[in-house]
Write a structure and sequence with these properties.
Length: 259
């Protein structure tokens, strides 16, 4: 029998493995994606009190929530995109839970994004990372560390000008390489969505969504604390709510990191 789980608990207790929270707070101020006005918008978060140790519930506190599936730190399931509509087990309630856990590959492009908010990670950038850190293993989460989560408030986070939002992402050839050749679980980003801000105008529009979900891969958006992860060696856990026929879900994303 494997003793790896007992070892894990010992190392968590000893602090030689740490738990890093990659999740932003979920509340009324959480920034939701702004699509062009011809498309229906997603709701942001509303928290409505049911009771708080008062006449409506003298010994208990609880709330009703209203929110879009794609709010805050959230999971994109394959069925989210039309390319993934026929992917088997492609909804939040049918994805095998094994696929929620994988090694994290963290690609630091903060310097490039500081110079150009529209930066796209090209295949050469991925291959340069692999030359230093090794090939992205099958079943990995690939996280794009852009520093974007340091941008506070809707204006800075969405970074919208007259010509639309400006934020970084993956070049579509990189998305294809990761999905088809490296066999990742999915990609995770610090921005509001897994496509770059300008990707609505790309050909095809929103290529990362189309490629990843068409290949049965996942997305994670609005991550933070990626700068607390090593380039390799951490394990990420991202388990969405089991929403029936869900296209995605807010979730807590955590990483187990060797100290
Ligand atoms: C719908 C349409 C376009 C995009 C998105 C949703 C997301 O980013 C999302 O949250 O999946 S780009
Ligand atoms: Mn989404």
């Amino acid at each position: 029998m494997s003793d790896v789980l007992m070892r894990l608990v010992e190392e968590l207790n000893a602090g030689t493995v740490r738990v890093v929270d990659l999740t932003i707070p979920l509340g009324p101020d959480t920034v939701v994606i702004d699509l062009p006005p011809m498309f229906a918008p997603s709701k942001s978060v509303t928290i409505e009190r049911i009771s708080r140790y008062d006449d409506d519930g003298p010994a208990w506190y609880w709330n009703n929530l209203t929110l879009g599936e794609h709010t805050g730190t959230h999971f994109d399931a394959p069925i989210h995109w039309v390319t993934g509509k026929d992917v088997p087990d492609g909804t939040t309630d049918t994805i095998p839970p094994r696929k929620f856990v994988g090694p994290a590959c963290v690609i630091d492009v903060e310097a490039a994004v500081d110079a150009d908010p529209d930066f796209l990670l090209a295949p050469a950038g991925l291959e340069g990372w692999e030359a230093e850190h090794g090939r992205v293993p099958e079943g990995a989460w690939v996280f794009l560390r852009t520093g974007w989560s340091r941008r506070e408030g809707k204006e800075a986070f969405l970074n919208v000008s007259e010509d639309g939002p400006h934020s970084p992402g993956f070049h579509q050839e990189t998305s294809a390489l990761l999905a088809h050749d490296r066999g990742v679980l999915g990609v995770g980003v610090e921005t509001v969505g897994t496509d770059a801000g300008q990707a609505g105008g790309f050909d095809p529009p929103f290529p990362n969504h189309g490629i990843m979900h068409g290949a049965g891969k996942f997305g994670l958006a609005s991550l933070c604390n990626l700068d607390r992860l090593p380039p390799t060696g951490a394990v990420a856990i991202a388990a969405p709510l089991k929403i029936v026929d869900g296209s995605g879900s807010p979730l807590r994303v955590i990483a187990l990191v060797p100290a």
